[in-house]
Amino acid sequence: MTATAELRRSRAVTARARPRRAGGYLVGALCLAICTVMLLPLVVSVLASLKPTAEAAASPPTFLPHALSLDSYERLWTYQQGLPTYLFNSLGTALLTIAFTLMLTVPAAYGLARFPIPGKEVVFVFLLLSLIVPYQALLTPMFLMFARIGLTNTLVGLAILHTAIQLPLSLYVLRNSFSAVPRELEEAAITDGASSWKVLLRICVPSAKPAIVTVALFAFIMSWNEFLGALVLMSRGSSFTLPLILAASRTETSLGGTDWGMLQAGITISIIPCVLVYLLLQRYYVSGLMSGAVK
Amino acid sequence: MYWTRRSRLTGIAYLTPALLFVLAFTAYPLARMVWMSFHKWSLITPPSWVGLDNYRRAFADDQFWVSFGFTLKYTAIITPILIVGGYLLALLVSRGSPLRRLTRTTVFIPVVIGLGVSSLLWYWLFSTDFGLINRALMDLGVISKPVLWLGVDADVSMLAIIASVTWKVIGFGMILFLGAIQAIPTEIHEASLVDGASWWQRVTRVVLPLTLRTVLVVTLVSVIGSLLAFDQFYIMTAGQPQNETATSVFYVYLNSFPYLRLGYGAALSMILALTILAFTVVQLLLTRRSHA
């Protein structure tokens, strides 16, 4: 009895230090299998975007391209209004969303974190309103309002909608981050006669840089990828974002069948910025997710 | 206190732009939606007050129930897959060997891709004649002729969409569970190891109870997300066959935009928003407790 416990204990301790060989191989194989399943759809899509025109339209499809070509990208470049227009729309909306989000939530989070405000809790809950009401349910009144003031089919209009979606998370992350800045730093500056605005720009914003990167990153990825709001607000072809023109391209090219090669080229181009930004800023992304969803 | 003079006014000044923004672009549309839901309005004719008619009509509308039921079924099937799958992945990658870290990063990549774009990708993979899934299954001899995955049979379509969405979002739960598992103090792990607990015992008796709150919160976030599903169905099935795969948000969209039944669409939105609200309240109560 004691011997077995002893044995188990020593085995358990070694298991922690160095996984038992058979188990280790099993875990390794499992990890590789999972990685393959996760990467395969992306890899075959990128490869399909590089197939020559005829091969991209083949049925049944080939797994690997027999020759590499940029035909699909060339067709996408000149499709309808041309790829540059759609890239400009997607990127413009995303950058405007980042700008609006920061312009609104940096001061607001500072106000909430540092000033005595009457009814602060109520104000905070009001600012988190779009967390409670899903934007999917507000699109019709938004559309009607935007149509009246001429914001439909504009990047500013779509960016306003995306900012409204993103505002609660940003406010939350920034408020927590500003609250964590040590007050001694600010008090020294105030004694030297700095205005509150200077304290915000010179002390709080630099100290909260990771949170600001997180907020900008989330705003970019959400706006770049968002579909339903863009579908509702952007009805004119020239104002389509990348996901919209790709979804539309399936039906518009359907007379001669969907242009699968061009679709894959578009998917590849849509995916690249997200994956790059994620791989470069992984740390910020994960921390933002934790504070946004769980705390 | 912090600022000696006029600090209240200064604080309010910092908050004003955000308050005005939320007032104009969230609160006003919400009020307008409530107002619209009590009116009959088709853009061509002026709105007229109809009281609760739009709501009564919704509850008598077969398609409303088809959409609602389909959305619930989708949510009920995908949620356990995402939560159990995500948790198992988190357990797998929770220790820090390079291969496990690579797996962590890889599983999370699809999370940052747009749902619209990933749905287009899977629309191609599941395409009957041009998709690699049918090609691979035929090569392996699993099927003898191409399967019509999308838009022909509601259940087969849901299966295909669940596979694609699981690929896309399973990393979300994994990363949050991972954070919770890693937050467990090492002493607790060591104590259970010394006590000779097996891996499975440690998971069920130590790790799971200590991360239960995160599991509940992620489950709610996931349920809310699934109840609001739209992109994947709009892109992969367009609601076919016969709107059987049109989710609740899809039906709101159809009424409000192509059909221009603005009042009715608003009533459907209200019902949807209230359903979501119930889940959000529970989520907020659970998250509030962590601050106490």
Description of the structure:
The complex is a heterodimer of chains A (295) and B (292). Chain A is built from 16 helices and no strands. By secondary structure, chain A is mainly α. Chain A has two domains: 16-71; 76-293, MetI-like fold. A two-stranded antiparallel ribbon of chain B has the order 1-2. With 292 residues, chain B is mainly α. Chains A and B meet through helix 1, helix 2, helix 5, helix 6 and helix 7 of A and helix 1, helix 3, helix 4, helix 5 and helix 6 of B.
Question: Summed up, what is this model?
Answer:
The complex is a heterodimer of chains A (295) and B (292). Chain A has 295 residues and is mainly alpha-helical.
Write a concise keyword list for the protein shown above.
heterodimer, A: about 300 residues, mainly alpha, MetI-like fold, about 75% helix, about 0% strand, disordered N terminus, B: about 290 residues, two-stranded antiparallel sheet, 13 helices
